[in-house]
Design brief:
It contains 4 helices and 9 strands, in the order E-H-E-H-E-E-E-H-H-E-E-E-E. By secondary structure, it is of the alpha/beta class. Strand 2, helix 2 and strand 3 form a beta-alpha-beta unit.
């Protein structure tokens, strides 16, 4: 039985610190905004968006709206990407949120609903940046940059509060 050893990269306290730091960075950049939109990529990206929104509400007067970007991460299709709930983002600052940035493919597809809606600004936030980009995507807000091999995987578990490399 071949089992890869798992290495804990972030413990719960460290993850919470990263989330609070990311919230402060967003506040610094968007301090003049009345409202921002955190749109998390389905599942863990959305979980992270909710945690960031909660942290932002504790430190700033900015109204924070959240939405989940629904798409198939393994096989994204241009005509099968939805916001839940659908938000009115014209002339608004939008931050697309995901747990791990690997090749940039998922975030590139996640941009599609916003490209025709006249957003004021579109930025990206990731908890972990692996730096194996194949798409021209750059996160403006990064919790942790980690050098990994393409064979390694990163798992973010918000219940246990751990980020694990295996």
């Amino acid at each position: 039985m071949d089992s890869q050893p798992k290495v804990v990269i972030l413990e719960k306290e460290q993850m919470n610190f990263k989330i609070k730091r990311l919230a402060w960075q967003i506040y610094e950049v968007h301090s003049m905004e009345e409202e921002i939109y955190l749109c998390g990529i389905t599942h863990r990206g959305y979980q992270l968006a909710l945690l960031i929104a909660e942290a932002l509400k504790e430190i700033s007067p900015i109204k924070v709206s959240t939405s989940e970007i629904m798409l198939d991460k393994d096989n994204p299709s241009v005509d099968q990407i939805f916001l839940k709930p659908d938000l009115k983002v014209k002339d608004k600052s939008v931050i697309i949120v995901d747990d791990v940035l690997y090749t940039g493919r998922t975030i590139a597809f996640a941009c599609i609903p916003f490209l025709t809606h006249g957003v004021k600004q579109l930025q990206f936030l990731v908890l972990v940046n692996r730096n194996h980009l194949k798409f021209p995507v750059q996160a403006q807000f990064i919790g942790l940059t980690l050098a990994t091999t393409v064979q390694e995987n990163i798992q973010v578990d918000f219940e246990s509060g751990q980020v694990v490399l295996f």
